[in-house]
Structures are given as structure tokens and as C-alpha cells.
């Protein structure tokens, strides 16, 4: 974290020197370095938090440090001040560079809403799907009931954010919607079917309690959760690796999304959702 911070500061001083010499916008090497340094702040932040939080765990596990002493002393007021400062600085920096044109800002506002809806869905419904996948690792029926009871009040409401994201994409960005849907039609349909079957299994598991069909619905709950998570990862991988477009229309094949990279993304999302589910249960 410290090394990346110093490196970012050096790049900043380097840019000032290039600006004074008039070569800031004509130095290809600096531009490449700047692009490579784009995620440096995020990586430094993660490294700092991992070092701080994970470094305390052995001391807590072995009873040398109390759990209350392991928690970072962060209060709501300090977080609110920091967030407010970030918002003000970014509004001043970027708002001063762009004319306040309503036609310009409207797509940006809706893009922010779309990203927020997708992010909230991944966080909230992610732990739901993760708990469904973790069912396969828990054999005790009582503990399975506890796992289900923790998400029973919220699991269906969490999926509302996905509906919001799809509605925004359809209503505000119809061109992107018309391009992405045919390119990723199969994994999207598979995801929706898995979510439907998962919801049905969630309800019928309770209604068939004590019968031979209860195990069947539990398998359906686990399979629906896993398939939905995998499909979302495949969709993400398909978008990242690119879609064949000609004159604003999709011109690829029905299975262009099926690549080793998209499969890896699907497995990664499954692992991430399982981690979210585990942290939800611990919390």
C-alpha cells in the first residue's frame, strides 16, 4: 500500500514536470504508465485493508486479542464526512470540466442508476444464491433450516434490483439492450429459469417437510442457486470478452459467449457468491 502510494505520487510529480515542459499530451510512455496506474488506488486500498484486518485474525483466533479490540474503530460520522468530501471533490473536478447540459447528463445519471442497481443486486442476492450453494456442504437439517430462515424475509425482495436494472437497460439504452439480448440469450434464459425454479423450490421445501419430496426440492434449491450464479458469471464474461457488432446489430453466433474465459468467470462468480453467503451466515 505504501509503495503504491509513493508510486502514484511520483507519477503525479512526473505529470507536472511534463506539463511544464509541454510534453504531457505527447508522451506515449507516460500515457501507458498512466493507464497501468489506473487501478493502483483501488489495489492499494485493498492491500491496506487486507493487511490490517487479516493480520489481526490469528491473534483473535488464539485468544490473544479480544474480538472487540480487533474491530476497526470506524464511526458513522467519519464515514459520512469522508463520503461527503469525495462527492464534493469529484463534483467540483468533473463538473468544472463539462458544461451543465441536461442532454449530456441524463444518460450519465441513468448509467449511474443502472450500475447501482446491478451492484446492489450482486451484493444482496449474491448471498442468497451463495447460501443456496452452501446447502450442498451442510448435511444437518436443523442448520439448513437456520440458513433458510436467515434469508426467508429478504430473498425475493433482493431480486427486485435485477428487475430495475433490466428495466433501465431496456427503457434508457435500447440499443445496448437489443445488442446484448440476442448475443447472450441462452445464458440469460438459463439464469431466469434457474431463479424461477429456485424460488419454487424455496417455497415447496417447506410445504413438503417430512416427506420424501423434501430432498428433491432441496436439490432444486441448490441447483437453481448454482446455475443462476454460474449463468450470471457467464454473462459477465461474455460482455467483457466482447460481442460481434456490425452497424449497431449483433452479427455473431448463438454460442459466441461459450468460451473458457466465460466459463472461468461463471465459476469465479459462484465462488464469490458462496463467500458472500458464508459472510452473511457468520454475520
Describe the global form.
globular
Overall mean confidence score, pLDDT: 81
Distance between the termini: 28 Å
What is the percent of helical residues? over 70%
Task: Provide the domain count.
Answer: 2
Low-confidence stretches: none
Q: How big a fraction of the residues is strand?
A: under 5%
What is the gyration radius calculated from CA atoms? 24 Å
- H/I helix tally: 13
Number of strands: 2
Strands of the largest sheet, in order across it? 1-2
SSE order, one letter for each helix or strand:
HHHHHHHHHHHHEEH
Label the structural class: mainly alpha
Specify the biggest β-sheet: 2 strands, antiparallel
Can you tell me about this structure?
There is one protein chain. By secondary structure, the protein is mainly α. It has two domains: 1-68; 101-282. The protein contains 13 helices and two strands, in the order H-H-H-H-H-H-H-H-H-H-H-H-E-E-H. It has helices spanning 2-21, 28-36, 40-61, 67-70, 76-95, 102-134, 141-151, 155-158, 160-172, 174-183, 185-207, 213-241, 260-282, and strands spanning 245-246, 249-250. It has a two-stranded antiparallel sheet with strand order 1-2. Strand 1 (245-246) and strand 2 form a beta hairpin. Helix 6 packs antiparallel against helix 12 and helix 12 packs across helix 13 (260-282). It starts with a helix and ends with a helix.
Amino acid at each position: 500500500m505504501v509503495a503504491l502510494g509513493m508510486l502514484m505520487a511520483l507519477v503525479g510529480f512526473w505529470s507536472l514536470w511534463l506539463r511544464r515542459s509541454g510534453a504531457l499530451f505527447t508522451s506515449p510512455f507516460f500515457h501507458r504508465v498512466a493507464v497501468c496506474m489506473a487501478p493502483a488506488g483501488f489495489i492499494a486500498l485493498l492491500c491496506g485493508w487486507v493487511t490490517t484486518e487479516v493480520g489481526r485474525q490469528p491473534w483473535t483466533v488464539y485468544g490473544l486479542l479480544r474480538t472487540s479490540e480487533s474491530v476497526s474503530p470506524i464511526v458513522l460520522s467519519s464515514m459520512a464526512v469522508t463520503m461527503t468530501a469525495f462527492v464534493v471533490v469529484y463534483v467540483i473536478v468533473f463538473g468544472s470540466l463539462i458544461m451543465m447540459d441536461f442532454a449530456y447528463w441524463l444518460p450519465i445519471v441513468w448509467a449511474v442508476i443502472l450500475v447501482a442497481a446491478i451492484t446492489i443486486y450482486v451484493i444482496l442476492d449474491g448471498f442468497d444464491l451463495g447460501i443456496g450453494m452452501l446447502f450442498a456442504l451442510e448435511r444437518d437439517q436443523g442448520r439448513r433450516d437456520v440458513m433458510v430462515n436467515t434469508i426467508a424475509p429478504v430473498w425475493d425482495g433482493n431480486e427486485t434490483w435485477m428487475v430495475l436494472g433490466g428495466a433501465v437497460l431496456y427503457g434508457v439504452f435500447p440499443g445496448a439492450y437489443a445488442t446484448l439480448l440476442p448475443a447472450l440469450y441462452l445464458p440469460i434464459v438459463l439464469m431466469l429459469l434457474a431463479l424461477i425454479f429456485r424460488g419454487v423450490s424455496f417455497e415447496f421445501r417447506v410445504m413438503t417437510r417430512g416427506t420424501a419430496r423434501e430432498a428433491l426440492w432441496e436439490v432444486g434449491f441448490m441447483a437453481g442457486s448454482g446455475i443462476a450464479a454460474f449463468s450470471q458469471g457467464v454473462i459477465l464474461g461474455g460482455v467483457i470478452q466482447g460481442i460481434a457488432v456490425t452497424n449497431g446489430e449483433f452479427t455473431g453466433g448463438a454460442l459466441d459467449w461459450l468460451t473458457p474465459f466465460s466459463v472461468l468467470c461463471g465459476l469465479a462468480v459462484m465462488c464469490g457468491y458462496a463467500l458472500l453467503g458464508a459472510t452473511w451466515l457468520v454475520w
